[in-house]
Amino acid sequence: MKALLVATIQFLVASVIGHGQNPPNAECAADTSSADPQVAEVAGSPSATVWVACGAVTRCGRWTVPSGTPVVVDRVRGAWTCVYAQARDGAGPGWIRSSDLRSMHYDLHPPATSWVGLWIGSKDRVAIRLANKSSALHLSGHAEWHGNGGVVHDGDVEGEATPRANHLHLVEEGADSCTLDLTLAGPYLVATDNDRCGGMNVRFEGIWRRARRRNNIQSVGLEEKAAGSVHENGCCS
Amino acid sequence: MTKETPPVRQSAKHRRKPTHPAASAAGDPVFAQPSPSPDPTGFRNPITDQSAKEVASVEPVPAPAGNAVEPILTLEQVYGSRGAAKTQAITASGQIVFHSVGDTGSVKGPNTQSLVADKMVADFNEANAADVPSFFFHLGDVIYYFGEATYYYDQFYEPFRDYPAPIIAIPGNHDGVVWSGDPETTLEAFLRNFCAPSFAPSPDAGGLDRTTMIQPGVYFTLEAPFVRILGLYSNVLEDPGVISGQNNTYPNLDQRQIAFLTAALKRVKTDKFAGAVIIAMHHPPFTGGTTHGGSPAMLADIDSACTAAGVWPHAVFSGHAHNYQRYTRTVNKLSIPYIVAGCGGHSPLEAIRGTYRTPYPIDSTLTLENYDGTDYGYLRVIVNATTLTVEFHPQSDGGTTKTPNDTVTVTLATHAIG
């Protein structure tokens, strides 16, 4: 009888865990570096919780992420999905309930003009315009990392590249140079780099949105004008 | 707001003229070569088989000299016949400066670790003698992937041949790992090079002049003016760090390191030692890197010793994760920096998962204050009668830049972080 009671309790505990009351105690390594990142949006109302997985299996608190926030989906485990998410205090991998996500469908072969614009994420941005060369795009980007004591480290990237499907691969000139990889996912631009694009912790990494203002986007140096005036319509300002 | 430009990434070596100790008496230590020479571009003895670099079980911990409960090494001993004068000069100057970092050993070539070592050597070019480092406390993984004699020249003696001060080390996991086909025993080479009975040329130094270190064991107290460093050996697992048997989880380990730590901390109290107390081990209690995890059971062991002694450290240093991370842990209303500095040159660096605006609160007791997943570098530590300051210097800043990328200062009397 006692054994039956213990077994029943164990079953109930396992059932609760199995139904996703707690995020998995498993590695979540989602980032934006996948060759073909899959973007979904948070569907929780009005927000959902992401359990931040900053270490191999370590969790580093929780983020409350508003509905409509884009995430990069990595893998599903039970009722949970490992995603790369962005919040006010950072961006990184974490577990979110799969029921708090909605999938997205977007053009995998967008025209070159779909890339054109000023794309921003937090303090990071890249301006894309049509290059003089046929089918090529000109990119000019700036990224920052804000550290303790108000210290800011930054980095810049500039060059031309031709998109393949919804991917763009930019390699700056020079040895050990910065490499930028962008994926156009509908209204979002997924960015990643090779960690050679700036100072301490500076990354061109994230899920960026197009800035509201699209006028004059082909003007050289717009990104500089936009730096102090553009308003992000996203989650993570 | 300070605006910093992206650091210049060095690709070429810049050899600087080091400072050398005077010619030493027979039996005295030697720390550096008499003249600088170009860095090599390759290893004399590269690792040809990198399999079996991770092991599944812990190894027994060698007994310290004399089976002492608290093995003690003094900085005066480390400097040989010059020791008394050295420690008197440090005391008279009002502060001690030293370096610390782990994971210097490289398996891909000497370039990255030499860049870090060269910047550390540049710290000896100071107008004020009080600002010159007195030693380098290595946080382990001196040698990869197998801590065997054959790799000591390429990964230790050559990269640090111009480093003109003592190098004291606790072993990391790779220092204790031996390739399965080799006859050496765990830590055999580490003991020969760092725990020798006297200063002597090392057979593993390839003819370079640096003499062996005279540590009393792989765990010990380093006593220096203004500071005591309590070094632990966290064994050979990739993760987690282990310093005790943990209630028979590791049957071949005993409680000696807990007894050592407790005794050392109690002696801080009985001696009324007013200087800085630093606990150091290779594996980090907390880490946010992509490869390595924290070591909560090891942290519980350390906490138990601190609780038993009624003494908590002013800082905890570790390596293992190949990056820089600084946490503040609040315990018993004390603020204690937990610093991970495993960015001493082992390539590749270990990225931090995600990007975090710091200070980033993890929970009510732990905050990630700062980190750097993009640079090799090292700690420069300054201790005086009232404060402990830890600076992080990235290698990419170059040898002439003296401004750290991160700094924390602890008031010794109150454990307050400023």
Describe this structure in words.
The complex is a heterodimer of chains A (237) and B (418). Chain A is mainly beta and 237 residues long. Chain A has helices spanning 2-18, 222-227, and strands at 38-42, 47-52, 62-66, 70-77, 80-87, 90-97, 101-103, 117-121, 124-130, 137-146, 152-161, 167-171, 179-185, 188-193, 206-210. In chain A, the strands form 2 sheets. In chain A, strands 11-10-9-8-15-14-13-12 form an 8-stranded antiparallel sheet. Chain A is built from 2 helices and 15 strands. In chain A, strand 10 and strand 11 (152-161) form a beta hairpin. In chain B, 17% of the residues lie in helices and 22% in strands. In chain B, helix 7 (256-270) runs parallel beside helix 8 (296-309). Mean pLDDT of chain B is 91; it is low at 1-23. The chains are: A mainly beta (237), B alpha/beta (418). The interface between A and B is large, with 42 and 43 residues.
